Amino acid sequence: MNFILIKFGGNAMISDKIKQNFCYQIKSLKDSNYKIVVVHGGGPFIQSILDEVGLESKFINGHRFTGEKSLKYIEMALSGEVNGDLVRSLNNEDCSAVGLSGKDAKFVKSIIRKDMLDGVEVNLGRVGDVIQVDNKLINTLLDNGFTPVISPIATAIDGKDLNINADMFAGHLAGSLGVDSYVVLTDVDGLYSNFKDKGSLIKNINIKELDKYNDAIVGGMIPKIDSIKIALKKGAKSAQILNGSKENRILDYLNNSSDIGSNFN
Question: Is 207:264 a contact under the CB 8 Å cutoff?
């Protein structure tokens, strides 16, 4: 298991301590000859800039509604502030990080997402779904020792940009690349059958059995689980949800601590 795609985001990004530990782990893995791709979100930064400019922010089925006006500020937060900061932090650890988005070389193709809420189709604005990934750019970077750090913005068929949920973006990319491990970092230990019961962490799950946990898959966990389904169906060999707020969680998991987090196959 030496090819990993990691989805990094959420509140972990606003903690310098957590971010520093994340970069340390990436450096440790690269020193052990792992190939690593990082996809990031940036929810807190997006919320901050939308609040600053007075634009409403709302979520539908775990996806952020993205109006025409909102999109340019969302891209500023993701591809500007967040991507640049993460690339700099990784390169301070000599990780040879390169920042890009799905727009670069049009390596990610997307269409406007259609979603349903209570049986009715809803408009999510400039929110996208990935329909195709061209692996050439990413593989070229990996083959030359670089660490791609990717923000989830892509260009649609109509030539306009789309905001893609970072989990979904990462799942498509992980599947297309056929990674050994697709790691989703969040601020909880994994998927619980009953979130109020911390003893109900589901440690090993076959995706064919996920339907029986539908009541536990709510809010921001919806796109995470959807992304894992996509990754595994498209070619990723395994997937994990790990608590990125805990020190060295990725290294601990890869050192055969399979009881950490939730493992999907």
Answer: yes
